[in-house]
Automatic annotation (TrEMBL):
The gene is nadB. Its main location: cytoplasm. Residues 434-528 form the Fumarate reductase/succinate dehydrogenase flavoprotein-like C-terminal domain. Its EC number is 1.4.3.16. Coiled coil: none annotated. Keywords: FAD, Flavoprotein, Oxidoreductase, Pyridine nucleotide biosynthesis. This is L-aspartate oxidase. Residues 500-519 are annotated as: Disordered. Transmembrane segments: none annotated. Belongs to the FAD-dependent oxidoreductase 2 family. NadB subfamily. The keyword Oxidoreductase applies. Residues 20-390 form the FAD-dependent oxidoreductase 2 FAD-binding domain. One of its GO terms (cellular component) is cytoplasm. InterPro entries: FAD-dep_OxRdtase_2_FAD-bd (IPR003953), FAD/NAD-bd_sf (IPR036188), Fum_R/Succ_DH_flav-like_C_sf (IPR037099), Fum_Rdtase/Succ_DH_flav-like_C (IPR015939), NadB (IPR005288), Succ_DH/fumarate_Rdtase_cat_sf (IPR027477).
């Protein structure tokens, strides 16, 4: 069994820092939650790098909310449920579509400057949306603009203390109550950060895969530490691969936003042929899982490592105005978005599963909350609808703060001592172990899966379990342990679900099976595998 703590713990022997609310991570979820909480409480934000390093910073497309008079919450709800392939929690989606517009207004009040046209907010359309409801900023730099505005406010807020370059090793829990976290400073010193509420906003797990649009910090830390603490981890098999990441020698897997297809771009194979009509009547605007698998099928059929995205038929001025970041990035590698077809391939983008929460963002552990990509609120189901993630973070961030306001301070903390026999690790360097894990995930737990491959992947991952019995000291060691935990959870869940749905595709079970699999996969360290049946609506 994976241990409860990655390090030996003696709470009374650690220095203690107290605050009201602990926010672990940054991005839109962490920043927005911290700002809301700071209106009435003291807050410590812990980031393992800095406030600007998160998935939010790289979000290009925008944020989905019902703003237009031609749109409605009912349309947004329908689109989200359809994309989620039957596994969305309708109550959670209902909360999102009705409270999202108010959350966007709050972002604007906090200084976010969304693009406008003729005095109104400029709205675009993305895959699987029936209406134009995506607000964007600086064309294709929405995430960066949101993080800029919120981080400026957070740094200036007197009630918020920001701890950059600190690593949260584990959550401190006893009798199903969370009392805070064990934090390691850059110099190796550890302390106990104590609070009346702890909010995980640590983002996703893109680094499980060799090719990802996520930054280096996305190593699944929040999911892993919550699992060790006894939280329910739900639907980890549903991994979203973004269909169109730049695939060019010497260039990182840079995201080519879904909004590019929303504005009329075509997908072409290396023969120059449009191919989406073979796979879905919605063509390039089909849900991400369908487009990503279609691209892989074309790559296999043409024996290529990429396909092309082509927007050269649109006006040059529109392309440069709407996608300035993408245009400049491609130009740095000698690719001109206005005249060239851009080589792209799928890359790991978003984790639909995560730490299970209720409608107030609370987990099954008292005083422990989760917000943003680390959470499983029920909004995304088996396949996230484009641009719903930023909306989810602000809607549930507000709800978390409202719930925290009703909590009383922790009176007394039990004397928690956890010690095990741990051996020094004399194994291969962690950079090599990390690359090996990523290769296993790409080969066996990628876009197309089957029982034989998943079992082989699980066997290879299990051979790495010895890491949990060794003395871990450095950030890269903790990150690898967290990545291995998430990889095991993802592979176990994928092996269990014998059907294809949303971001989970089984070649040996290629059909969606509502009769047998209308349920969530829930894993709990203490209770094993649980199931949650849901009713279709």
């Amino acid at each position: 069994m994976i241990p409860k703590y990655l390090v030996d713990v003696d709470i009374q022997a650690l220095p203690v820092v107290e605050t009201d609310v602990i926010v672990i991570g940054a991005g839109i979820a962490g920043l927005f939650t911290a700002l809301r909480a700071s209106e009435t409480s003291s807050v410590v934000m812990v980031t393992k790098k800095s406030l600007l390093d998160s998935n939010t910073r790289y979000a290009q497309g925008g944020i989905a909310a019902v703003i237009s008079e031609d749109d409605s919450p009912e349309y947004h709800l329908h689109d989200t449920l359809m994309a989620g392939a039957g596994l969305c929690e309708r109550d959670a989606v209902d909360v999102l579509v009705h409270e999202g517009p108010m959350g966007v207004e709050h972002l604007i009040q906090l200084g976010t400057q969304f693009d406008t046209e003729n005095g109104e907010y400029a709205l675009t359309k993305e895959g699987a949306h029936s209406q134009r409801r995506i607000l964007h900023a600086n064309g294709d730099a929405t995430g960066y603009e949101i993080v800029r505005a919120l981080s400026e406010k957070a740094i200036a807020a007197p009630a918020i203390e920001v701890w950059d370059n600190h690593f949260v090793i584990d959550l401190v829990t006893e009798n199903n109550v969370c009392y805070g976290a064990i934090v390691q400073k850059n110099n190796g010193e550890r302390l106990f950060l104590r609070g009346k509420a702890t909010v995980l906003c640590s983002g996703g797990a893109g680094q499980l895969y060799r090719y990802t649009t996520n930054p280096e910090v996305a190593t699944g830390d929040g999911v892993a530490m919550a699992y060790r603490a006894g939280a329910n981890i739900r639907d980890m098999e549903f991994v979203q691969f973004h269909p169109t990441a730049l695939c060019y020698p010497g260039a990182p897997r840079f995201l080519i936003s879904e909004a590019v297809r929303g504005e009329g771009a075509y997908l072409r194979n290396i023969k120059g042929e449009r191919f989406m009509e073979k796979y879905d009547e919605r063509l390039e605007l089909a849900p991400r899982d369908i487009v990503a698998r279609a691209i892989v099928s074309e790559m296999e059929e043409t024996k290529s490592t990429f396909v092309y995205i082509d927007i050269t038929h649109e006006a040059e001025d529109m392309i440069k105005h709407r996608f300035p970041t993408i245009y400049k990035y491609c130009l740095d590698y000698g690719l001109d978005l206005t005249t060239d077809w851009i080589p792209v391939a799928p890359a790991m983008h978003y984790l639909m599963g995560g730490v299970q929460t209720d409608l107030n963002g609370e987990t099954n552990i008292s005083r422990l909350f989760a917000c943003g990509e680390v959470s499983s609120t029920g909004v995304h189901g088996a396949n996230r609808l484009a641009s719903n993630s930023l909306s989810e973070a602000i809607v549930f961030g507000k709800r978390i703060v409202d719930r925290i306001a009703s909590l009383t301070p922790v009176e007394q903390i039990p004397n928690i001592v956890y010690k095990t026999e741990r051996q020094p690790h004399a194994m291969q360097p962690f950079v090599e172990r990390r690359l090996k894990l990523q290769k296993v995930m790409v080969r066996y737990v990628g876009l197309k899966r089957n029982r034989q491959g998943l079992q082989r992947g699980l066997d290879e991952l299990n051979r790495q379990r010895a890491i949990f019995d060794t003395v871990l000291m450095e950030r890269e060691e903790f990150e690898f342990a967290n990545m291995l935990t998430c990889a095991l959870l993802t592979t176990t869940s994928a092996l269990y679900r014998e059907e294809s749905r949303g971001g989970h595709y089984r070649e040996d079970h290629p059909q969606r099976d509502d009769e047998n699999w209308s349920r969530h996969t829930v894993l709990n360290r203490n209770q094993g595998q649980l199931e949650e049946w849901i009713e279709y609506v």
